[in-house]
Design brief:
It is built from no helices and nine strands. It starts with a strand and ends in a 31-residue tail after the last strand. The protein has a domain of 103 residues. The strands form two sheets. Strands 1, 2, 3, 4, 5, 6 and 7 form a seven-stranded mixed β-sheet that branches. It has a two-stranded antiparallel sheet with strand order 8-9. The protein is mainly beta and 213 residues long.
């Protein structure tokens, strides 16, 4: 299979458009004619309780749901089978016998993010003030990237539903703005912990701790 890009075409009867150096079947890229605008729903609830005159406890839930997210899949991929891949098994072979993989950009992705976020705020205790934040979160989707990534089974996108790609534990030094994060990524809370809302594409799992300052 070959992928060929041609900027200037010369059309002539019975002359291959892409020349004769590479032989079909070719790989190609397409954009769905049913492309829709992606959107994300954000929601949260927080409870705050004062303990004494100088201590405040906050606990909250933050969640997002991403819909119509951009994903790429091979619309000409044969159904999963133990048989050897052959051009004849591709669903569009009769219509496009010279095309192998047809990777199409579609808005069929979805994602979900759920987090428990807690804060302990202490002010003016023997001249010291501090804030301790902790976030326990988990993000899932059926495709974290739209570019150069295909699902395991293009005929069943939800078979890829699972932990987001950037759901990875990381650690930063205590003097860093974010001391301990888990899975900072595209669409994850941008900052330490606290109750910052995830951006665009469903936030990824993040766990943060910040030492009292």
């Amino acid at each position: 299979m070959f992928s060929i890009t041609q900027r200037r075409f010369t059309y002539a009867p019975n002359v291959p458009v892409f020349g004769s150096s590479a032989q079909p079947p070719y790989g190609t890229f397409a954009v769905s004619q049913d492309l829709k605008l992606p959107y994300v729903i954000n929601f949260n609830v927080n409870v705050e309780q004062q303990l004494g005159l100088k201590t405040i406890v906050q606990i909250g839930y933050v969640g997002t749901r991403g819909h119509r997210l951009a994903l790429m899949r091979d619309i000409n991929a044969p159904a999963p089978s133990p048989l050897v891949l052959s051009q004849a098994r591709r669903p569009l072979n009769a219509q496009f016998p010279d095309l192998a993989a047809i990777n199409e950009l579609e808005t069929i992705g979805r994602s979900a993010y759920n987090s428990l976020q807690m804060s302990l705020i202490q002010s003016n205790w023997h001249g010291l003030s501090g804030r301790l934040n902790y976030t326990l979160a988990h993000a899932m989707d059926n495709g974290s990237e739209a570019r150069n990534t295909l699902p395991m089974d293009s005929t069943n996108i939800d078979a890829d539903w699972g932990n987001a790609t950037f759901d990875i534990a990381t650690w930063s030094p205590p003097d860093s703005p974010t001391t301990c994060r888990r899975g900072a990524s595209r669409g994850s809370p941008t900052g330490g912990s606290s109750t910052s809302s995830p951006r665009s594409r469903a936030a990824r799992r993040s766990t943060s701790r910040r030492a009292p300052t």
